[in-house]
Structures are given as C-alpha cells and as structure tokens.
Amino acid sequence: MASDLDFYFDFTSPYGYFAAMRIDALAAKYRRAVKWHPILLGVVFKRSGMAPLTTIPMKGGYSLRDFARTARFHGIPYQQPAAFPIATQAAARATLWLQNTVGDSEAIAFAKAVYQAYFADGVDIGEPANLLRIASGLGVDGAALMEGISSPAIKDQLKNEIEQAMLRDVFGSPFIIVEGEPFWGFDRFDQLEAFLKNGTILD
Amino acid sequence: MASDLDFYFDFTSPYGYFAAMRIDALAAKYRRAVKWHPILLGVVFKRSGMAPLTTIPMKGGYSLRDFARTARFHGIPYQQPAAFPIATQAAARATLWLQNTVGDSEAIAFAKAVYQAYFADGVDIGEPANLLRIASGLGVDGAALMEGISSPAIKDQLKNEIEQAMLRDVFGSPFIIVEGEPFWGFDRFDQLEAFLKNGTILD
After folding, report:
1. Are A50 and B56 inside 8 Å of each other by CB?
2. What is the per-residue pLDDT for A203?
3. Phi, psi (5° rounding) for residue B61?
4. In the predicted structure, residue B148 carries a pLDDT above the cut 60
C-alpha cells in the first residue's frame, strides 16, 4: 500500500472542516489512508507572523463570504459560528487522547463530529462539556476523556505535534503532505487528486 | 449584454498572470467583457498589513513551489523570475496610458505580453526599456509611451485607481468583481465560472 496522507488541521478552520468532510473519500479512491493531525493555528501564526483571516482589513469580510460560498459550491452544510475563531486546545487534545487510548477510527469519527457540531450545528466546541457530549454520543467514556485532556502528558504531546508540523513547514489549515509533496488549502484538492492519481502534477 | 468583469491585478503576481492568461476566454464564453485594472499590491498591503507571499516564514518556500506547480497543472508556461517580487509602477502606468490614448484591446495585449515576458521569458519588466521594447513589438509609439508614463497625470491616475479598488475591498491579485460578487485568486475561477453560468453559486 502506498504512503499515507498526513492531514493537518485546526478545528476553528472552515477550510479545514471542508477538507475533513472530503479527505477520507479522496484518499480511499486511491487506496491511501489518512493520518489526522490536529494543530493550533495560534501557535503556528506566532512563528509565521500570519493572522486569522477574519481579522485582516479588507480581507476579513471577503473571507466570511468565501467560507459560506465555498460550502455551497461543494454542497457542504455550513453556518458561520457566532464565536469565531475560537481556541481549540481541548478538541485537539481530545483527538490525540482518542488516538492514544481508543483508536484512529474513533478519533477520526470524533474529529468529524466536532467539526460538524461547530460549523453546521452552532455548538461551541471550545466548551469541554460539549466535547464530552459529542464523545459520549460515539460511545466514548466521557469522564476518562475529560481526565485525559487535562493531563500534562497530553498537553506536551500536542505542543510536540505542533512543533513537528512546523518543522515540516506546515503553516496553515488544511495542510496535507504525501510523499514529501505539500498541499495547502481545500482549493488544492484538485492538484492533490492529480498527484494521487498520477504520482506527479503532470506537465 | 450582461455587466463586465472588473479584473484587478499586479504585474508581479504569479496568480495574476495565470488569471490574465485565462480570463478573457472565460468571460467570452459567457458573453462578457473584461475591464483590466492594474494595481500595486505594495500600496494595498500597507493598508491590510499583509506581506508578499515569498517573504512569509514557512509559507515562502511553499509559495514558490505552488507557483510552478499550479502553472504545470493548468498548462501555462512558467519560469520563476530571478528578481521577485518587483516594483511594477511603470508597467501599471503604461497599461493605463494605453487605455487612455490607444485603446482597451491594445492595453490588454500589452498587459498579457508584459506578464508573459516576466513569468515565461525571464525579462525584467521593472526596467522601462523592456516595456518600451514590448510596446514597440505591438506597434505602439515607444517614445510617446515613455513620456506618458512619467507624466504626473498618469501617476495620479494610478494612485486614484488603487484607492478606488481598495474602496471595493480589493486586497489581492487576481481579484475579480462582477455584479457586486467578489472573487479572489485564480483558484476561485471555478466558482467565478459557476456564477457566470448560473447567476449564483447554487445551493
């Protein structure tokens, strides 16, 4: 089997959400698996000097429009969250904890459910109680999850994961790396698919 | 006939170049005309706080790779210019002068030739002598052009055009506005085409 796709995302990233809704099907079409890597853009932006899209003069209003329009264009349910962007440490740590203690497929199901709760159903995913509810709905032991995400070990693990991502020049969300080839943005899924299909972006 | 497309671009923008190679054909397919508006990203970035892509930590190297890869993906000749990004006042003023004194179609032919010289043929378009040569090749009076682009009137006109663009929240290149709907980036040409075809980005 060919190499996996490394998929980096922040839970407060609309384009990360769109990618999350589509990446497993795209990878499966070309017999690839996906490794899901939650990161925190706030940490990454400190190093790059970049800023959240909606805070940038002139670009902010356009971005809000583009989130909704891109969702419609691709047929993905979308509702701009009232609180945006938000801190997503708890959701990222919960995803890592599930990967560590339950399994990758459960962690992926959780990550997708968290994204949908935030971007389609108006749930505040910055609130740990809401993460617990989502996890419980998937059959995960909520009390164990809450304990897990507040442990120093999981906090260190997330810091380390983000550091590793930045060593690979991951500067945004979504960001996919496969066989050393980096793709930034949901709008590079066409080039990503060409790469998976042909092993190159053909001349 | 339906409204024209307003097409904003900076001559040092690779994605602006890709858009320039494709926008007239796209518009013609839906019986639209295109108004070409040269702008200067340096002026726009002062207001937005944004920076040239290749100067951003981590993102810089990716951007260079994405320019070349996007060109290959779309079958557009591309060679990363040795001097990049550059100041493009002279090229922008020359385009305006051609619009004023010769005609829109000549100005568009000139703009396309300038883009190709810079991004496909390794010509330094920051150098007025090279602009003169390009213009002469299109049958334009080079001496008149050189005089025209150093006039205070054309300098004021460019400043004013950029100010007008920023009043419409044009924050990047390429940027297209049609019937009030804004599209930023060559990677939004799919949504732009859907809009031209259907009058909306359909649900």
Report:
1. yes
2. 53
3. -65, -40
4. yes
Predicted confidence (pLDDT) per residue in B22-78, tens digit: 999 999 999 999 999 999 999 999 999 899 999 999 999 999 999 999 999 999 999
pLDDT digits (tens, 9 = 90+) for B165-175: 999 999 999 99
Residues of B in contact with A190 (CB under 8 A): 73
pLDDT value at residue B203: 53
CA B99 to chain CA mean position, Å: 14
* Average pLDDT score over chain A: 95
Looking at chain A, the number of H-run helices and the number of E-run strands are 9, 4
What is the spatial distance between Cα A131 and Cα A142, in angstroms, rounded to a whole number?
9
DSSP output for A53-120: GGGSTTHHHHHHHHHHHHHHHHT------SS-S---HHHHHHHHHHHHHT-HHHHHHHHHHHHHHHHT
Do B108 and B99 contact (CB within 8 A), yes or no? no
Spelled out in words, what is the top-level CATH class assigned to the domain B5-198?
A: alpha beta
* Cβ contact, residue pair B62, A188, below 8 Å: no
Which residues of A are less than 8 Å from B166 in CB distance? 58
A55 Cα distance to chain centroid: 20
Asked if residue A166 lies in contact with residue A44, where contact means CB atoms within 8 angstroms, the answer is yes
Q: How confident is the model at residue A199 (pLDDT cuts 50, 70, 90)?
A: confident
Confidence of residue B201 (pLDDT cuts 50, 70, 90): confident
Interchain CB distance below 8 Å, A184 and B57: no
Beta bridge partners of B181: B178
> Distance between terminal CA atoms of chain A?
26
pLDDT at B1 over 80: no
Q: Is A29 left (phi over 0), alpha (psi -120 to 50) or beta?
A: alpha
* pLDDT at B4 > cutoff 70: yes
Q: Which of A44, A55, A56, A58 to mutate to test the interface with B (most CBs of B within 10 A)?
A: A58
The residue with tokens 């708890």 is A90
Q: What is the DSSP string of B12-53?
A: T-HHHHHHHHHHHHHHHHTT--EEEEE--HHHHHHHH----G
DSSP assignment of A149-180: HTSHHHHHHHHHHHHHHHHTT--SSSEEEETT
Distance CA B107, CA B135 (A): 9
What sign results for the dihedral spanned by CA atoms B138, B141, B146, B147?
A: negative
In chain B, % of residues over pLDDT 90: 95
Q: How far is A174 from chain B (nearest CA, A)?
A: 13
